[in-house]
Amino acid sequence: LNIPADSILDHLLPSYDYIVVGGGVSGLVVANRLTENPNVTVLVFEAGELDSSPEAVTVPGLIGHGGFVPPYNWNLTTTPQEFLDNRSRDYGQGHVVGGGSILNGLVMTRGAKAEYDAWETLGNPGWSWRGLLPYFKKSENFSAVVSPEYQNTLHIHPHMSVHGTDGPVGVGYPSFFYNQSTKFLRGIHELGVPVLSDPNAGVAAGATIVPSSILAWNQSRADGRRSYLDPVLDRPNLHLATQQTVTRILFVNETSTGQSPFEALRRAYAVEFVTLGDLHRWQVPCGKEVILAAGSVLSPALLQVSGVGPASVLEDLQVPVVLEIPGVGQNFQDHGMVQAFYNYTEPGLFSANNLTGDTLLNVQEQYLANHTGPWTQPLISTVAFISLFNLSRLLDHAPNPSVIGSNFDHKAALRLGPDAHPTIVEGYAHQLRALLSLVLNPAVAVLEIMADSIGTLSVVMQHPLSRGTVRALSSDLLSGGSVAPNIHLDPRYCSHDLDCEFLRYGLKLNDRIIKTKHMKELKPAPAYPWNDACNDTLLTETIKARIQTEFHPVGTTAMMPLAHGGVVSPRLVVYGTANLRVVDAGIIPILPAAHIQSAVFAIAEKAADLIKEDYDTFQPPTPAPNSIPLGPGDPHTPSGSPEPQG
Ligand SMILES: Cc1cc2nc3c(=O)[nH]c(=O)nc-3n(C[C@H](O)[C@H](O)[C@H](O)COP(=O)(O)OP(=O)(O)OC[C@H]3O[C@@H](n4cnc5c(N)ncnc54)[C@H](O)[C@@H]3O)c2cc1C
Fold it and tell me: What cofactors are annotated for this protein (predicted)?
């Protein structure tokens, strides 16, 4: 049931088994899988609306060429970036059913096997490549269909044993590629970097055509909503509540368990929300679990305003402490990116820049008539994932990863100041060890170079050593009327110097790439400063002025031991709670060298199985009425209609 936004109070059940907070990628996967059992009820709260299928969302060739469709973006910004140029950056995140998968660039990559094995090494049994591969496969409906011409010139030969063909998310290849894709792959090959026929089979370092999240049959976007929600929205046990912003999760103390380090587990008994055009807070109780899927930025903020987070943050917010968990909102990681435009001047070249006037009309007509042609081609299909081995081989002075090693002063490297919690520092030390082994692995990338359809070679750091933070600035996320101003989002890009250093080497590598025989045929005319790759000072300044997000935030509710700054257990349960899970990108402990949506789909598939397992094998938890309310201001709503809160 899609509950009408303006009359939600007339439609809500008195209570739900599961309440999912956030109807983005992860939330919709879990809601779909849990409601396969007709005996459980699930309510999904989503702050955004259902998209109206505008071409800017559905047509691959239009995505990323204009801004975001305004209501579908949270309009978040970062704090001024002190390790860059002291400017803040826009930070687009999906505010729409389907979340980031409605805005994203369609790239579907997984990274290397070793990336996931590192998650397991960090204390998470079952979260290795082997543990996740069945879920990568379960989520996708992979089509290897591509014309024989492209198969050969672009080396597209997927390994079908690692792909699923009957999952919900369409994954495939466009029916059209621009000529620059061939030139780029050949240029990279000239440099001795391998060309991969399938980047998603466990070895991810090399140049490659990436599969896209598109439906092969009509060459349009495949997203979380169309894959996991639309086909099951008529299930009577699945309720979707759009344009409803969750403002808090409410807890009671469970009977003491004697479990260390928490005296008593906290039970999430209800979710508080604000409905469209209303100032009241309403509550809906849940019988089994609250499942947090609000994304890496907003899930930690919601935990904090609900009293779960670092002591200092809870104190600043003046919220009653439910659980002190230092890692909530820490360990933020993102792929920082610099876009470098190379302006191919070859007169006969056809690129997405040529889609104007009559050409554009013809291309549009072709796409609408038979789903072929340049509009099927996403902005990004052709990339090179560069390992440290290849970077060192191709450049005179490659970055020295030994500084990541075990003798390093972790606390100083974090640059979090004297108040950094010891568990965060300890967790960082463990991550650095895992990162060192990743960057030295020739199957793993340290840089991504994305050759897009308009002549940009964007350079992206793949294993950042910097760690940022997310913090709620007010105990009321809607203070002042909107959420964005109440979020302190500080990626702390390049707080570790090596991150910017890697980008500088990436730009030097670009210079080598455009000077290869095949790329020279495009007649690149790099604009200043990309034409001066020898000037390190200039490159560093430019990087610092131009770094922006690749939209891959993770780590803020990391799946790691509590003693290492983690927030959730390997079963994704928030430490110290009986029934609160996080299933979104925030649980990723270390960013893989990949675009992350395929991992998020897989994580959520696995999360759904974990939840099902727990409730099949264990007695359903005692309902909330037997529990003790945490204190004034948290009135308990045992049953009946949702109640307004002051
Ligand atoms: C512009 C952009 C481009 C990207 N490009 C790619 C790409 O090409 N390839 C790739 O692999 N990945 C890409 N990504 C990343 C990918 O889309 C995300 O990793 C993925 O969407 C994360 O899923 P999630 O479930 O963690 O969060 P989301 O998908 O962001 O879902 C969170 C949902 O929770 C909702 N929500 C948040 N707070 C509340 C609240 N308080 N109350 C109610 N609802 C709430 C949000 O509105 C949102 O719908 C891109 C992301 C963006 C934004």
Answer: FAD
Tell me how many degrees the CA angle 615-273-323 measures, rounded to the nearest 5. Answer: 60
Binding-site sequence positions for FAD: 96, 104-107, 246
Report helix, strand or coil for 417.
Answer: coil
**Residue 194: half-sphere exposure toward Cβ, Cα within 13 Å:** 14
Which tokens sit at 37? 């059992």
Per-residue pLDDT of 52-102, as tens digits, reads 999 999 999 999 988 899 899 999 999 999 999 999 999 999 999 999 999
Helix 497-514 vs helix 179-190: crossing angle, to nearest 10: 100
Q: Enumerate the β-bridge partners of residue 196.
A: none
Q: Is 430 annotated in the active site?
A: no
Q: Is the backbone of residue 155 left (phi > 0), alpha (psi -120 to 50) or beta?
A: left
* 280 belongs to the catalytic site: no
Whole-number pLDDT of residue 625: 34
Q: What percent of the chain has pLDDT over 70?
A: 92
User: Helices 25-34 and 597-617, interaxial angle, to 10°?
Assistant: 30
Nearest-atom index, ligand 1, CA of 108:
11
pLDDT in tens, 223-253: 999 999 999 999 999 999 999 999 999 999 8
User: What are the φ and ψ backbone dihedral angles of 119, each rounded to 5 degrees?
Assistant: -60, -40
- What pLDDT score was predicted for residue 363? 97
Residue of 95, 335, 552, 564 marked active site: 552
Q: Which amino acid makes up residue 524?
A: P
Spell out which residues line ligand 1, taking CB within 6 angstroms.
21-27, 45-48, 92-96, 99-101, 103-107, 245-246, 293-296, 298, 302, 551-552, 584-585, 595-598, 600
Catalytic residue among 371, 496, 564, 595: 595
Q: Helices 497-514 and 536-546, interaxial angle, to 10°?
A: 110
Strand 457-461 to strand 281-292: parallel, antiparallel, or no bridges (unpaired)?
unpaired
Side chain identity at residue 405, one-letter code: G
Are 178 and 185 contacting, i.e. CB atoms less than 8 angstroms apart?
Answer: no
The whole-model pTM stands at 0.94
Separation of alpha carbons 387 and 447, rounded Å? 7
Give Cβ neighbours of residue 504 (< 8 Å, ≥ 6 apart). 536, 539, 540, 543
